[in-house]
Write a structure and sequence with these properties.
Shape: globular
CATH architecture of the largest domain: Alpha-Beta Complex
Distance between the termini: 41 Å
Radius of gyration: 24 Å
Strand content: 15-25%
Largest sheet: 5 strands, antiparallel
CATH topology of the largest domain: paralog of FGE (formylglycine-generating enzyme)
Order of helices and strands: EEEEEHEEEEEEEEEEHHHHHHHEEEEE
CATH superfamily of the largest domain: paralog of FGE (formylglycine-generating enzyme)
Helix content: 10-25%
Amino acid sequence: MKTSVTRSLSLVLAAYAALPVSAAVPEVSGVSMTQDSSRLVTIAYTLADAPAVITLDVQTNYLDGAGTKWASIGGEVICTAQGDVWKKVAAGAHTITWRPALFWPDHKIPAGGARAVVTAWPLDNPPDYMVVDISAAAQPNTQRYYPSADFIPGGIVANDEYRKTSIAMRKIMAKGVTWTMGSTPAESQRASDEATHKVTLDDNYYIGVFEVTQQQLALIKPGRQTGYFYTATDWQMRPCEQHSYIEIRDGDSQSTSVSSYPSAPASGSYLDLLRSKTGIAFDLPSEAQWEFAARAGHGSGLYGDDSAILNKNNTSYNASNLDANLGRIARYKWNCTWGMSGADCGSTSARADVSTAICGSYAPNDWGLYDIIGNVAEWCLDWYASDISSLNGAVNTTAGSARVCRGGSWRSIDSECRPARRASAAPNTRVWYTGFRLACPAAQN
């Protein structure tokens, strides 16, 4: 016989300025939670004005001086829930099942002491994290969504899956936010192409928590063995490198560029194959999207974790004059073994000297993005131009001789690893210090 415990519903409905007045807002009702004699918890709910993305929280109550309060038991406990949760769900009656761990004695939920919180997210503004399966058995449109990093099963860094067989994406709330792109004279190493200008992006987007790794690339493009460091320890979780912009977006021939943004990625390109595999409109980030995400809400003169850029410009290794703030968040020339040894990166000895880092080895920026500075430089959508101040964040589609690369790499000195730093390379360039990070629209179909 089941013991029924009625749970109150906490429905999170935000006012989204982007929604038309007539747009239906998904609505959850009839939430209940029961636990049977085997300790299995069943949460039932009804969803209207759907489809919508559904997430779950379980809260427990406690008393303080102001009365009864409710607090989450923690996403790491709840993320094992199965059924109509963590995904897009159609209108109608639905169930979620969940087995409590030893959070409660004997795995039993105390009557009146907990409640289920079922949240419906509009498809044009889904949860903060999206995880996409790209394993050999992956099916399109089976991505999972989570409201915060705490809910991602196994932990986003602790679980190697997110750097091998799945891609973790972080939502960036950029729509309508006016911010300053470029650098000011406070960054003493700034270049002439970093002029400050105001930018307002049109849409929110997802961007990769990690750079695309060697194992992920091998699943996207089987048979295209990635680069320089694939024999290193845990090479699967190191960033892919030695892949050109042409291979990534323009086609499967290194010698011919057949596609250009805003056209869709060309047939046979890495992005085309990934779109077919997942059903998601993956692309490279635009230059403005990249910089906005790298800054993580912080302005010129700061890294994305709000630490100061110390304006170092060491052209040779000097242990007493390093940028400790940079060293905390990035693999760059003066904290990798190649740089400290002073070896020539083209030498035989350097090839055996591991210089990229396993993705996630350093601290993230304040929006949870790892290695967006350092490790490998990252291709962006744009053609390079020395002055982009008139674009207001739009992709530069005027053809030139080079595409934009951002972020610096394991072989870059301090001054080359700043959010405003701009670099470029010919689209067919394959080098051992350039890779890429994925982006896609936040609005999901």
